[in-house]
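tool_call: predict_structure(chain=1)
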Amino acid sequence: MTFSEAQRIVDDWIKELGGGYWPPLSMLAALVEEVGELAREINAVEGPKRKKRGEGSVDIGLELADIIFAVICIANYYGLDLEDAFQRVIEKYTERDFDRWRLKE
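tool_result:
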């Protein structure tokens, strides 16, 4: 699935079932909440704080998808093209960090 397809799917869902986009600061708060949930999942796998009995299994992929959904909502609200933005960020990292990530010989 491309970013454009994902943006269209989210937009259709929001318009049909979600009742419209939330105000920007509410969407940002939701994004931060989802990042916190990702941190909790990673901490359950990598850190000292394991999940309690009955809390369910660790699903890092689902938490990442929640973050993507929240980011897409913000992008759609502002009419942004995430494919274009992602291409620009890859170009930025490539130019800025071109000698930073070389494989060790």
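agent: The longest helix spans residues 24-46. Proceeding to next step.
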